[in-house]
């Protein structure tokens, strides 16, 4: 277990590999642990970090730090303390929101961004995220598989107030507007069968800038990195292999990653 002290409290993280930095940010459910297969894939060429955000996993619980702004500040302070330079960011759900906000505020520090299960609008999120108990949410969203158990177990470490604070901020965030303003190469990934986050509508996809691309994985639910692990990791590898600054729309050259708009 690795940890640093930020604002006089513990922030937990794990790291694998050597090379350019890539950082994984988790969802409203779970913690860093479900990223392990992705970290192992990325660590062949990258130094892969996964962080527990404030109120999640083994990072400190303090409701004063549960806003989206505070979570972005955690990421920035983490980078500063560890001397991490230009980085690839991979965020999921809450982590996708934090990663998008970070890219908006510090575009020069981000090489590329993958946002998984990113809600294009606050109305794209199921109201059950705000009202259902965490064990019920986990049963609703997760298959009963060994890999999913890491999320189910770590969901019990979550401070529900951290979820509520992020949802309150989301109404002020303007997620669709944010995607239109990001200047970094940005890949949005959604599961076709996601019960928590609605897949983007055609008119929303049409508004995406040239450097942003969206891909839907048809078999996946809210956790495509678990539901279609091999395929998700191939997509991650292909995205990371793009030359710096290239639009992920170049992934369309591969039949497998063509956008499917219904």
Structure description:
The chain is built from 11 helices and 8 strands. The chain is an alpha/beta fold. The chain has an 8-stranded mixed β-sheet, sandwiched between helices. Helix 2 packs across helix 3 (94-105). The mean pLDDT is 91.
The number of distinct helices, counting runs of at least 4 residues, comes to: 11
Radius of gyration over C-alpha positions, nearest whole angstrom: 17 Å
Shape: globular
Structural class: alpha/beta
What is the terminal-to-terminal distance? 44 Å
Main sheet: strand order: 1-2-4-3-5-6-7-8
- Mean pLDDT over the residues: 91
SSE topology string: EEEHEHEHEHHHHHEHEHH
Question: Hey, roughly how much beta strand do the residues contain?
Answer: 15-25%
Q: Could you estimate the helical fraction of the residues in percent?
A: 25-40%
Could you give the count of β-strands?
Answer: 8
The quaternary organization reads as single chain
> Main sheet?
8 strands, mixed
Uncertain parts: none
